[in-house]
Amino acid sequence: MAIIKRKDYYDPFSELERLHDEVNRLFDFSLGRFPERNIGLLERGWAPAVDVYDSKDNVIVKADLPGLAKDEIDVTIEGNTVVIKGEKKHDSKVKEENYVRTERFRGVFHRTITLPNGVDSSKAKAEYKNGTLELTLPKKEEAKPKQISVEIK
Amino acid sequence: MTLKNIMKKNKEDSYVQEVTPVVNIRDEENAVVLEAEMPGLLEENISVEVQGDELFISGKRLNEIPKGYSSLYQERIPIEYKRTFTLGSDIDRGNIEAHYENGILAVKLKRSEDAQPRKIKVL
Hints:
The complex is a heterodimer of chains A (153) and B (123). Chain A is mainly beta. In chain A, 10% of the residues lie in helices and 33% in strands. Chain A is elongated. In chain A, 20% of the residues are buried. Chain B contains one helix and nine strands. Chain B has one helix at residues 3-15, and strands at 17-19, 23-27, 31-37, 46-51, 54-61, 70-74, 79-86, 91-101, 104-111. In chain B, the strands form two sheets. Chain B has a four-stranded mixed sheet with strand order 1-7-5-4. In chain B, strands 2-3-9-8 form a four-stranded antiparallel sheet, with no helix packed on it. The N and C termini of chain B lie far apart (74 Å). Chain A binds chain B through residues 2, 4, 6-7, 9, 18, 21-22, 25, 49-56, 58-60, 62, 64-69, 90, 94, 98-105, 113, 116, 128, 130-132, and chain B through 17, 20, 22-28, 35, 37-42, 63, 65-66, 68-77, 100, 102-104. β5 of chain A pairs antiparallel with β2 (23-27) of chain B, so a sheet runs across the interface.
């Protein structure tokens, strides 16, 4: 039913990448001032971590989007596909040259999530709190599980 | 503590992944500001501590599945953010402010009075 692949908790490459980051930090070698030049072992850009929860009536999608403003997050629902996109920017009030270290990702991100069934986009609710986006998506009537009573003669 | 309890505790601890949060550090006229990305935490689970020359920030997040729901897909695993910084001698240890908003922990480290640049007139 669901096409979404579950991510392994222990991804060996992410462990390697973490070690790489740690060693760079240890030697203060990372090109922290120029994140666009700071290429990891496996360059993957950035996409938010996502959870999908299912109940009889609703689907909940949670995404970690730290440091964004509400109007900078764009959510589109089409059929059973949810697209979360936006741009992570630096605080415009802060002068660029004041930064001595920038590790936080900056730039455009995009994440597509396939849901197990269709949702009613007109009744969808979105909430952004503590850097986490939470979407509550009511299922379409025909997608809800129904109990059918069978008469036995 | 029985062996069974120790094993149970170890299992619980290993479930929480330790993560080094990414930070931006900026230099302001009379302060250094540190911004750490730690999304989805509750304020009571965040700690900012100063011990000697070290600043230690941490925050724990247990990911609880909402009531009545089952998990289809889970990447937001239980996390403990941890990072230590060494403070410069010009930082006023007693004058540190922390603020959590939109998943960013901002720590403002003010420079002590006598460490701030002073203009000296040339006579």
